[in-house]
Amino acid sequence: MIKIYLADLTHETVTVSSDTMPLNVGYLSAYLQKCFHKELKIHLFKSPAELLQKIKEHIPDILGLSNYCWNFELSNYFFNYVKGINNKVLTVMGGPNFPKDHYSQESFLINHRAIDIYVFQEGELPCCELVMKFINKGKSIDQIKTDPIKGCLYISPESKSLITGDIYPRIKEINDLPSPYLTGVMDRFFKSKLNPFIQTNRGCPHMCAYCHEGDKYYSDINFFGIERVNEELDYIRSRIKEQSVITIADSNFGMYKRDVEISKKIRNIQDSIGYPQYINATTGKNRPDLILEVMKTLKPGTLTMSASVQSLEPKVLENIDRINIKWSSFIKIQKELHRIDPRYQSISDVILPLPGETRESHFMTLRMLINAGVDQILPYTLMMLEGTKLNTNSERKKYDIKTKFRVVPRSFGEYEGKKCFEIEEVGIAHKDMSFDNYKLCRKMALLIFLAYNKQNYKELIKYLEDKEINIFKWILSGFDSSDKADSIIKGIFNDFIQETESELWDSREGLIEFYSSDKNYKSLLNGEIGGNLLQKYWVKGVVFNFEDLTNYLFDVALDLILTESELIMEDQNSVILELNNIKKYILIKRNNLFDLNDNISGNTVDFDFDVKSWEEGENGRKLNQFKMKKVFVVSKTSDRIIMLKKLFEQYGNSAQAIGKISTRINVQKLWRELYPAATMCN
Rounded to a whole number, what is the distance in angstroms from the first to the last CA of the chain? Predict the structure, then answer.
């Protein structure tokens, strides 16, 4: 009997860094069990603590671990740990975080001696062949390295050079792969805090230079059968515990007709048991008509449409081998999305600094997205991912890409007295964008996070649009005047820029030395340094200082209205009164949303306008048409409290955990409701 431990590890020091069930090693386990029946005893892991305990109890014959940018150092730590106990354990790594050229692959394995074999590209077939050879060679690591192994790479014990087996073609009939759910492989993870993770197809037709799947190898799309996917969803429904999220691994969910049928199944489950409340998925950038149909099928607010563009500068798109959806179609789909139901949301990723991007072109992209009505904009820093076209010497030199190193947020820990940090290399400048301009673009990203994303200020935005004030101009005014804000808001922006600089390191070694000191590691633990900065400062602004932030944004709006419009004093006073009513409305609905001790519910609040009817009404009617004394009762929020308690149990309630939670739910579900108590005409 061969004992195999397979793990897709995640750090759990602050909160669960990667919060999905280990579907990748689940597929490997199910396939190996199909191939070898009772010859193997396979254990799956996500938690490093559980794996550590299991290794101490029983040493495996084979240890197989995944390699992503958020867990490589953790996996490598475990390889070294198990080799220190028994050097005869076969250590196998696989995953996309791996270079593609021969020299870099050889250097990788020479520099990480505890890894015996690297499984390259799709893993099921190579792993099967590797285990077969391991059995046939009497579990001798040296013996299995005498000949190339298809789909695998290793350093030859004799020549000390890289040996590469032929690459397995991708599995076209992927229905032949047993389901990790239907075979029971994933059963024990339903008792954990991890979210179910499903895959309905494999592959991506796009060739983006910054992405692991931007490779011809992955260009064909292979589909699991709809009946099988539906059976998996039923299986999940019958076993789900406290989780509220499901993650779909597809690179372009919603882009195919079959996704509508899958969505009907998910909607059936939603109507039956209220799960999932949120679907974490990347929707395709083509076929917006189908994506709309998918969203209409699901419960409103549970799936966000990924209208990612990365940039709208043609030269940048050419540099990264990307073709975006036609802009006219992009605008049309945004309007249609909001026409159907305002709860339907769209989100667009942008990456900074892509080659060819300037500060001006980046701001242009942001302006166009906001003008088009995209609900959220997620600005990411360019990650130099292993195995991507952009992370090659030729591309780096071509665009003079400057990079630094930083800790992957929430991805670190201390294991048996040894500190372990996941590190990412990120772009911070190139020949068309200086580091100073990069920092200014990041500051703009923070302002968009605070003022625009998640619709916390949608009523103010509606009011500005009624006044024919361009929303990006309002955001730009906030950007330009941040130095004049009160000390709290000014401090948030200044601290963000300072930390944007201080989180970056010239070398991995310098970073590790700094964070390894007890003092700095403690600061990393409590979130003072090293976190996801946009999430961290969103929490600072929206969760802990919402009233100050709101006052600032309303002051910017008032100044802009008075500057743009020639108003007599009476009209100015009317604007001030209207803005004050909108501000009160926003604060009552959204202040202290993550506070379990909600003492606002049941209170009555009076207004000079029926802000609720105006906010919910069709565009065209101005707020002054709703002038009347109006008293509202703040609704009870028992459902919100229950939801928060479940989320805090799953992720924790620290500031870093709240930042993570904000990416896993539709925050609007936490908003309070107001109901009319009395009406009195003015």
Answer: 84
Helix axes 487-502, 435-451, angle to 10 degrees: 130
**Domains defined along the chain, listed by start:** 2-164 (3.40.50.280)
> pLDDT tens-digit profile of 59-82?
999 999 999 999 999 999 999 999
Provide long-range contacts, Cβ within 8 A and 24+ apart, for 186-191.
186/21, 186/22, 186/23, 186/26, 186/44, 187/239, 188/44, 189/21, 189/22, 189/44, 189/46, 190/239, 190/240, 190/241, 191/241
Q: Per-residue pLDDT for 492 more than 90?
A: yes
Quick one: what percent of the chain has pLDDT higher than 90? 79
88-147 pLDDT, tens digit each: 999 999 999 999 999 999 999 999 999 999 999 999 999 999 999 999 999 999 999 999
pLDDT at 678: 60
Q: How many CA atoms lie within 13 A of 258 on its CB side?
A: 14
pLDDT band at 621 (very low <50, low <70, confident <90, very high): confident
Residues 13, 17, 21, 24, CA torsion sign: negative
Cβ within 8 Å of residue 333, ≥6 positions away? 288, 289, 291, 292, 305, 307, 346
Buried (b) or exposed (e) across 472-505, using 16+ Cβ within 10 A?
bebbbbbbeebeebeebbeebbeebbebbeebbb
DSSP-derived 3-state class of residue 120: coil
